[in-house]
Every structure is written in structure tokens, then in C-alpha cells.
């Protein structure tokens, strides 16, 4: 019975500790297509604003450019015929829009869509990672305060060194987390 309680306690702790509260955007087909849709939608909006696309066509494209309105499996089938990932995606999407489809992907290159869509996926992931790193840093700071006087052996080249406190170690880790958070902020502005 005791072993079972320990297993349950560990499973509960593990499930709570080793997961993100917000889903991280992985480069799954759904997330990649969602990124492409956002990029294409922004392109249509911009071109419509300059008068390059009729407002009616832009509206049809905009209202039908949600990941919930596309079928990934159908995009895969078209892509198998075109043998080109973006060409298959564009052909599928143009077919969804009828006559307005002629204005879809106007002036864009494959690389524009691939790179920008992936950047959006990465940016979404960075938000969730930043939040969790910040919470981890807060936990480390709380541990540093709680264990400011909890003595432990220091380490020096894999051997025991002069005594330090566990709070000191946690403070060092919290400082390292701050460095990581700053790096993430620098990356975020570039993505």
C-alpha cells in the first residue's frame, strides 16, 4: 500500500511539474499551416489596403483563412500531386475561395510563407517558454530565501569544496535563469 501511495504521489508530482501550462507550438502540420494562413491573411489584408485586391475577394479570403476551416489531410493529398509543400497548400486554399482564390498568394514567394509562418510558430512557443522560465526563477528565488542558512558541501572539480548554503546555490541558478530570460527577450524581438 505504501509503495502504491508513493507511486501515485510521484505520478501526481511529475504530471504537475514536467508540463507546460500553455501548449507549446510545435512544428506540427497544424501549427505550420496555421502560421502560413496568418501570413497569407496579412498579405491579403495589406494588398487589399493598397487596392491590389478587391475588398470582396479579400473578405472571402479573410473569413475562410482559419485553421479550423481547412483539412490538413486534403492539403497533404494536393501536395502529393504538386510535389511541393507550399504549391500544394496554395492550390488547396485557392480552390476553397472560388474566384477570390486568384488573389491568394499574390506577390509572395514560397520562402516568404515558409519562413514567416515558422517564425510565428517559434514566437508563440517563446511566450510559453518565457512564462515557465520566469515561474521557475521565482521558485528558485523562494528556495534561496528559505534555505539561506541550509549548509551543504560546495563542489570543486567534482569533489567536495568549502561549505556553501543551498540558498546560495539556488540564487546562482536564479541568476542563470535571468540570463536565459534576457536571451529569450533578445530572440523574441528578432523573430
Account of the protein in words:
This protein has 191 residues and is mainly alpha-helical. The protein is built from seven helices and two strands, in the order ααααααββα. It has helices spanning 2-17, 29-49, 55-63, 72-82, 85-97, 110-146, 166-190; strands spanning 151-156, 159-165. It has a two-stranded antiparallel sheet with strand order 1-2. A hairpin with a 2-residue loop joins strand 1 (151-156) and strand 2. Helix 2 crosses helix 6 (110-146) and helix 6 (110-146) packs antiparallel against helix 7 (166-190). The model is unreliable at 5-20 (pLDDT under 50).
Please name the defining characteristics of this protein:
191 residues, mainly alpha, two-stranded antiparallel ribbon, 7 helices, 69% helix, 7% strand, elongated
Strand order within the widest beta sheet? 1-2
Low-confidence stretches: 5-20
Tally of helical runs: 7
Rg, Cα atoms, Å: 25 Å
Helix proportion range: 55-70%
End-to-end span in angstroms?
52 Å
Measured by DSSP, the beta-strand proportion falls in 5-15%
Average of pLDDT: 85
What composes the largest sheet? 2 strands, antiparallel
Shape: elongated
Structural class: mainly alpha
Number of separate strands: 2
Sequence of secondary-structure elements: HHHHHHEEH
Amino acid at each position: 500500500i505504501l509503495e502504491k501511495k508513493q507511486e501515485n504521489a510521484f505520478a501526481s508530482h511529475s504530471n504537475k511539474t514536467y508540463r507546460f501550462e500553455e501548449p507549446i507550438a510545435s512544428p506540427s502540420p497544424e501549427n505550420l499551416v496555421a502560421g502560413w494562413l496568418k501570413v497569407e491573411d496579412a498579405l491579403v489584408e495589406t494588398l487589399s489596403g493598397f487596392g491590389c485586391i478587391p475588398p470582396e475577394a479579400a473578405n472571402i479570403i479573410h473569413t475562410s483563412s482559419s485553421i479550423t476551416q481547412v483539412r490538413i489531410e486534403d492539403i497533404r493529398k494536393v501536395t502529393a500531386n504538386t510535389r511541393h509543400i507550399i504549391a500544394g497548400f496554395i492550390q488547396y486554399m485557392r480552390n476553397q475561395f472560388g474566384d477570390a482564390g486568384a488573389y491568394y498568394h499574390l506577390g509572395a514567394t514560397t520562402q516568404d510563407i515558409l519562413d514567416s509562418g515558422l517564425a510565428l510558430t517559434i514566437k508563440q512557443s517563446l511566450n510559453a517558454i518565457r512564462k515557465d522560465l520566469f515561474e521557475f526563477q521565482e521558485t528558485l528565488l523562494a528556495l534561496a530565501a528559505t534555505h539561506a542558512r541550509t549548509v551543504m558541501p560546495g563542489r570543486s572539480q567534482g569533489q567536495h569544496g568549502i561549505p556553501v548554503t543551498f540558498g546560495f546555490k539556488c540564487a546562482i541558478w536564479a541568476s542563470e535563469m535571468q540570463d536565459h530570460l534576457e536571451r529569450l527577450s533578445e530572440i523574441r524581438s528578432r523573430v
